[in-house]
Design goal:
With about 200 residues, the protein is an alpha/beta fold. Helix content is about 40%, strand content about 15%. It has helices at about 5-10, 20-30, 80-95, 110-120, 135-145, 155-165, 190-200, and strands at about 50-55, 75-80, 105, 125-130, 150-155, 175-180, 190. A five-stranded parallel β-sheet has the order 4-3-5-6-7, with helices on both faces. The longest helix is centred in the middle third of the chain and has 17 residues, at about 80-95.
């Protein structure tokens, strides 16, 4: 396994006590000739419930074909499904040019997409910086400029509007990604579904 891939996988855990476990499973999978991309082999709870939430979501964002809204009911995903989602977000960010040591902000309430944005960015070697969703535009701009963020995930079009007010004050900010894209997205905004599309796109597309 390449050092770059190893470092990317190790970055999924911010808790040092988990690193030995991660290294162990990488070694096991390597010995057995299996890919360590997911860290979830036949014996690592791939079908166990990983996330459970009751937020409205779109079918497309969780693997469906069409961006139709589903009812707000309790929903769960397995560890493998969750990791596949994280991988898609990571590859979409990579297509946007996000990489090692870049900063990515997240301005959203707690939801599954928050987790995937966080771990997806860290798996590329990027640094994530959360911003309270209750922050005023100027407060958000302070954090963005302090970490020199190249991208920010915002929860919805209302949060996007906050960032748009101070976009001209944030010279490093290149991409604003809207998680919940219900409603009309302003020109220049990137939807969460766009990130999924980019994960499969060829370089230069």
């Amino acid at each position: 396994m390449s050092e770059e891939r190893l470092n990317g996988i190790l970055a999924i855990s911010s808790q040092p006590q988990y690193l030995d476990d991660v290294r162990h499973w990488i070694e096991v999978l390597d010995r057995e000739g299996e890919s360590a991309d997911f860290l979830i082999g036949e014996d690592i709870m791939k079908n166990k419930e990983a996330l459970r939430w009751k937020l409205p979501r779109t079918k497309r964002q969780m693997g469906g074909a069409e961006p139709e809204e589903e009812a707000a009911e309790w929903t769960s995903t397995t560890y493998r499904q969750t990791w596949e989602w994280i991988t898609q977000v990571a590859m979409g960010l990579k297509h946007l040019g996000i990489g090692d040591s870049d900063a990515v902000c997240i301005m959203s309430r707690t939801r599954p997409a928050w987790l995937t944005a966080d771990i997806g960015a860290m798996s590329l070697g990027a640094i994530t910086a959360p911003i309270y969703p209750s922050s005023e535009p100027g407060q958000a701009a302070y954090v963005i400029n302090n970490v020199k963020a190249r991208a920010i995930f915002v929860e919805n079009v209302q949060q996007y509007a906050k960032i748009e007010k101070v976009r001209g004050e944030c010279p490093t900010l290149e991409h604003v990604i809207v998680i919940d894209d219900r409603g009309k997205l302003p020109a220049g905004a990137v939807s969460f579904d766009d990130i999924f599309d980019l994960s499969d796109a060829e370089p230069g597309e």
